[in-house]
Amino acid sequence: MKAEGAVSHEVSAGQTLWSIARAYGTTVKDVMSINDLHSIIIRPGMTLKVNPGPVLVLASWYGPGFHGRKMANGEVFDMYEDIAAHRVLPLGTMIMVVNPENGRMIVVSVKDRGPYIRGRSLDLSRSAALKIGMAEDGLKKVVIKVLP
User: Fold this and answer.
1) Alpha carbon of 31 to those of 18, 59, 97, 122: distances in Å?
2) 90: domain range?
């Protein structure tokens, strides 16, 4: 497996190869191969290379109730900035988000943690949700891809 186009992921407590592979749209086998791992045992603080693929996820958006509050990265949330919240991807990760219904795309930075509602994988700021045409729906299946 080639490391070309790979991104780095620092393992956090509670993460498994499966959860990391799922978040990046790849397989455990590929993560093990690119990192020359011979066991599924990983530890917090390890840095893994991951070749990300596209992932279809259920996204929601957040705005007024969180505007002006502190985010996981320490910055203040601005619902007019194009940002995202994700539970697993490292803060600062750039991701491309595509609405498959209309083809609209946006690139956002993961700056916060969440969503914490079962079944949802991504929260977009109001600005980002408006730009890809999902703000009125509230929930939308979108395709995300981690950018190198």
Assistant:
1) 9, 25, 23, 22
2) 55-146
